[in-house]
Structure formats: structure tokens, C-alpha cells
Here is the input.
Amino acid sequence: METCNISFSGMLYGRLGNRKTKGIVCCAHGDRKFIKFVNKLAEEKPDTLKISAKEDSNPKLIIETKEIPYISPIERLAIRLDKMQRKALKLRAENKITAFIYEFRQNEYLNMRRRYPFISQKTLDKFEENIQKLAPENLKSFFTKFFS
Here is the structure.
């Protein structure tokens, strides 16, 4: 019997004009931070989030925002940002990257729900609720299936 060892590490892209940058792999703790950040934005500034999806053999949730989460100096040490991540943050600070696009696959999300001890189920439930609330009407049924 094969086991599924998919780690939860969504891809983060930057928007440079009308094109996307190369994908930056987020560490598991970065993914947790982004989910908490999306929850915070959904409550305080819901108009800054753009929710979309890609429906294919491996469905994806896509979140775009012009906001950037604050990363404290302690978090910078703990997360250990790699060269690409530091470059993306620098380009965003210089307003060359106008937005961040975060996407992850359904199987990664479901795996995180089952096996990731660093984020509470309450936070994930809130995330799902926020995505459902902010998603365009034509994607509501997609996200119901995505999160189940």
C-alpha cells in the first residue's frame, strides 16, 4: 500500500505588470502564516483579496493580494527565507512586484488538514469560511468540493 507524503507547500508568485514571476516554494510555516494573513485580510480588508480557481485534474485555489504580511526579524530567522523569497520581498518593497499570487492544490490542502500540527483546525475552518464568502458566485460549488 502506498502512502501519500505530499507536503503542504503552496507556490507564491509575484505579479510584474501583466505577467507572473517564477514560483517560489513556501515552507510549511510560510503557508501557515499566509493562511492566517488571508483570514486577517478577509475580516479587515476583504476587497484586497481576489479569489479564483483552476479546475483541472488537480484543482487549485488561487489567491491574489496587493497586501504583504509583516515578517518580524525573529520570523525571518525562524523561517529561513531563501534567496528567491528575499528577492521577491525586496521587489515588492520597491513596488516592482505589484501583487502576490498564492496557489495550492487540493491534495496539498487536504493533507495539511490531516497531518499538519502547526495550525489549528479552527484557523483552517475560518480560512475555508472566508474563501467561500469571498469567492465569486460561480466558484462557490467548486470550493465546496475543494474543501471536502
